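Long-time lurker, first post. I've been practising inverse folding by hand and with some scripts of my own, and I keep getting stuck on stretches where the structure tokens seem ambiguous. Below is the full token string for one chain I'm working on. Before anyone asks, I'm not after the true native sequence, just a reasonable design that respects the backbone. If someone could post their per-position residues I'd love to compare against what I wrote down in my notebook.
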């Protein structure tokens, strides 16, 4: 039995063959601890240093600015908790559509005397810059706004937010986990104090990531111990994952323009077909990642449609969150003002570099067939 066609690349991506090949020696032959003083440790340290250089080059920074860690969630927590530890509580700003690994540590600050304000988005999912301006009328210490939304794919004007944050004397961070490898950018162009990436989103290994920081940024470690990563993240380095992250970053940076061109064409074909089926495409009016389509068919439950197309051989994601067994529209769609009935139908397709026109057309056929079948069942039930 063949595997389903994979159309869920915002969730995770397959490890690139070149990345895997680079990692394999560090599981067996080159298993030294990078902190050891002997030859085995020296070779492991050189591998970590080379990976740090590769990540730094891909983001336009110096190697000491790169902190290796386990992924996006840890990086986002390290910035929010680590920066807040050295600041007097004031206002913290996050967008209303942040991933939980930003939203939840920000909520924790609110329990520590900070005032948490969530920045509004419009109906297309774009950040409301007027609300940003209004927010900075209050003393602000921390700002975190994602570069691209994991559900809608909407890309935010982080540089504009960073300019306002710096003028207000606030530290600013962006969760760039979904954006890296899909659109071109570097650290300087965003004007932030810190950004987060995660390897498994761009054909690197799971359990790898980095927080890239301004040289003058002071953070209190959230994992303490032996002083690894210049004292910022204790624990013996995961050398295979770090090596893989370095290679994946180098490849992603080199391929991003080709990726954008190819995947954008596939997305346009996909959305033309979905529109013909009567779908609403969320965030369509906004600048988006080239690979992401978030849609709903009126009257069709998203979870049910995901199961139906999975049975037809296509793997996609539902936009619904399940709480106590009841499907609810996503917080992102709620922030955009999408009605719950439509929001419960949300399905996310996130294309990858290896997807094809035939796969997109096959998926459209599967959606059309599933929708007809589900509407027929609903008609019989009534």
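-- Answer (accepted) --
I ran through it position by position. Result:
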């Amino acid at each position: 039995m063949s595997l389903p066609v994979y159309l869920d690349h915002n969730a995770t991506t397959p490890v690139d063959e070149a990345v895997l090949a680079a990692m394999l020696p560090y599981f067996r032959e080159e298993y030294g601890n990078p902190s050891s003083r002997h030859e085995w440790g020296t070779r492991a340290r050189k591998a970590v240093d080379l990976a740090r250089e590769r990540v730094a080059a891909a983001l336009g920074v110096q190697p000491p600015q790169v902190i290796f860690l386990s992924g996006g969630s840890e990086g986002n927590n390290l910035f929010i908790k680590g920066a807040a530890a050295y600041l007097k509580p004031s206002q913290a700003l996050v967008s209303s559509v942040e991933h939980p690994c930003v939203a939840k540590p920000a909520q924790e600050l609110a329990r520590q005397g900070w005032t948490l304000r969530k920045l509004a988005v419009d109906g297309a999912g774009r950040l409301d810059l007027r609300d940003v301006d209004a927010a900075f009328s209050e003393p602000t210490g921390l700002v975190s706004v994602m570069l691209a939304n994991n559900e809608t794919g909407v890309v935010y004007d982080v540089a504009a937010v960073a300019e306002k944050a710096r003028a207000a004397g606030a530290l600013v961070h962006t969760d760039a986990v979904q954006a890296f490898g899909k659109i071109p950018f570097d650290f300087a162009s965003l004007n932030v104090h810190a950004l987060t990436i995660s390897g498994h989103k761009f054909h690197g290994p799971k359990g790898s990531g980095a927080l890239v920081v301004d040289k003058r940024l002071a953070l209190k470690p959230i994992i303490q111990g032996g002083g690894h990563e210049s004292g910022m993240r204790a624990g013996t380095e995961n050398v295979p994952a770090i090596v893989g992250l370095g290679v994946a970053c180098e490849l992603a940076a080199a391929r991003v323009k080709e990726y954008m061109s190819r995947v954008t064409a596939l997305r346009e074909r996909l959305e033309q077909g979905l529109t013909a089926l009567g779908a609403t495409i969320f965030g369509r009016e906004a600048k988006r990642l080239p690979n992401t389509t978030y849609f709903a068919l009126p009257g069709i439950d998203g979870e049910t449609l995901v199961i139906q197309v999975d049975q037809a051989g296509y793997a996609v994601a539902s936009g619904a969150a399940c709480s106590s067994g009841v499907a609810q529209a996503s917080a992102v769609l709620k922030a955009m003002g999408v009605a719950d009935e439509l929001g419960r139908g949300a399905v996310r397709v996130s294309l990858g570099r290896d997807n094809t026109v035939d796969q997109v057309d096959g998926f459209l056929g599967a959606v059309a067939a599933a929708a007809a079948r589900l509407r027929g069942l609903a008609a019989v039930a009534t």
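A couple of notes from the structure itself: The first strand starts at residue 5 and ends at 6. The chain has twelve helices and 15 strands. Happy to go over any region you disagree with.
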